[in-house]
Write a structure and sequence with these properties.
elongated; mainly alpha
């Protein structure tokens, strides 16, 4: 295994952790109007972006930890 391939799991863990933290922080600190409904919370643009960041972060973390194998395209 070359040095670049050995660095990939660490790269995925570090980057995914940062992505998870920023996604959670973005979801928690976004401005909320008074009496916001559940549908308005989910359909809000910043909520969708935060949930997308969290989903990518979880996926990358699972790849970095070796739970899910990285896809090989040929």
């Amino acid at each position: 295994m070359n040095s670049a391939a050995a660095f990939f799991p660490k790269f995925f863990v570090v980057c995914s952790s940062i992505l998870l933290l920023t996604g959670i922080a973005q979801y928690l600190v976004r401005p909320r109007p008074p009496k916001e409904t559940l549908a308005a919370k989910i359909i809000n643009r910043s909520s969708i972006t935060a949930l997308f960041s969290i989903a990518l972060g979880v996926g990358g973390l699972l790849i970095g930890l070796g739970v899910v194998k990285m896809p090989h395209f040929r």
